[in-house]
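pinned: reference chain
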Amino acid sequence: MLQVKLRTWRTTLLFFGSLVKKRLGLRPGSVRLDQIFNYLKIDDLVTTSGQPSECEFELIKQAGFRTVVNLAPHDAENALSDEAALLRRLSLDYVHIPVDFSNPTETDFSAFCRVLDELREKKIWIHCAANMRVSAFFFRYRTEKLGVDSSLAKHDLNQIWEPFDYWKPFMSGMLKN
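pinned: its structure tokens
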């Protein structure tokens, strides 16, 4: 349990670090996919992360991903100024489901499920600001829609964080719109 709480703190601190880099005009970029902020490979078709930089999206394309799903709002603190245009230039498909971090809804989750069902056999990259929204949504999708054992899905979720506050009812599928 302590290790999970430490991962939540790590995610939070790294997120704030990414904001500092952005404010200072530093251009973050990784040389490998697994160095992207809060990278988590689920399987051969699905990988999740926090917000990739422009050059990291180029790595994502080179790795064979064809679709990017973004759960962060356009105005997220570490969002790119025009992610949709960047991905168009890279010939990557883009799906945007803006999820308010303090108010995840069943409507958001339903939209997420529809997109993943449509893309089930495609190689997709799913991200948000810090991989917190994504890991929570993907936990539910895997357990509720794919029948993945909750202990396996929770292990992957806890690689990123331990959901708290308003995320706890969402994780149980108990939120109402």
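why pinned: The chain has seven helices and five strands. Residues 2-171 form a domain with the Protein-Tyrosine Phosphatase; Chain A fold (CATH 3.90.190.10).
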